[in-house]
Design goal:
Layout (H helix, E strand, L loop, with lengths): L5 E4 L2 E5 L18 E9 L1 E4 L2 E2 L3 E9 L8 E8 L4 H12 L8 H6 L2 E4 L3 E3 L2 E5 L4 E6 L3 E5 L27
Parallel strand pairs: 7-8, 7-9
Antiparallel strand pairs: 1-4, 2-3, 3-6, 4-5, 6-7, 10-11, 11-12
Length: 174
């Protein structure tokens, strides 16, 4: 079945409850037994068929009973309330993973989810400064995530850490 042509570009931020580097990215067990994570993506440029997605923001929170690759996850999506109904429907289709080949992050994560909680359409605040390695997003009265650099425990200086996984399931470089 042919898929609708779509594309999104812009900063994506994510965090989980595990130690540095996210063990799931290395097919390891989560640090605390379960995997809980959140992510947000500001779409600076994008489309889904004829629907423009520029300036929209999406997010999600997840929980798996073990490593992501073992499945059994619960997910809840967030879409910024400033989107139009057409943009919301397009973003729901992208986030579901159904409008793409089985090698994109949305499709891969989607295949590990057994239960989806109701989508929340609400104001979303998003910030990302990759040079400073800071960022965050907030859905008022629901959740908030703040990112800052890993720091050297002796000097307090921020580390410039990178992960390169040529065959990673979520990213190739982060």
């Amino acid at each position: 079945m042919p898929h609708i042509d779509w594309m999104i570009k812009g900063p994506k931020i994510a965090a989980c409850n595990c130690d540095y580097g996210c063990p799931c990215e290395f097919n390891a067990r989560p640090t605390h037994g379960v995997c809980e994570g959140m992510e947000a993506h500001r779409i600076d440029e994008g489309y889904f068929g004829d629907v423009r997605l520029d300036g929209t923001i999406i997010g999600a929170r997840y929980r798996w009973p073990g490593p992501v690759h073992e499945g059994g996850g619960v997910a809840q999506g967030f879409i910024d309330e400033r989107t139009t109904p057409a943009q919301r429907e397009a973003l729901i289709q992208i986030m579901s993973g159904k409008e793409q080949e089985p090698t994109t992050v949305f499709n891969i994560y989607g295949s590990t989810i057994v239960r989806e909680l109701d989508l929340i359409v609400a104001p979303i605040e998003f910030k990302a400064d990759f040079k400073a390695r800071t960022g965050g997003f907030r859905v008022p009265d629901v959740m908030e995530m703040t990112l800052e650099p890993i720091r050297n425990p002796v000097t307090g200086a921020p580390h410039l850490a990178q992960i390169r996984l040529p065959n990673g399931f979520e990213f190739r470089e982060a």
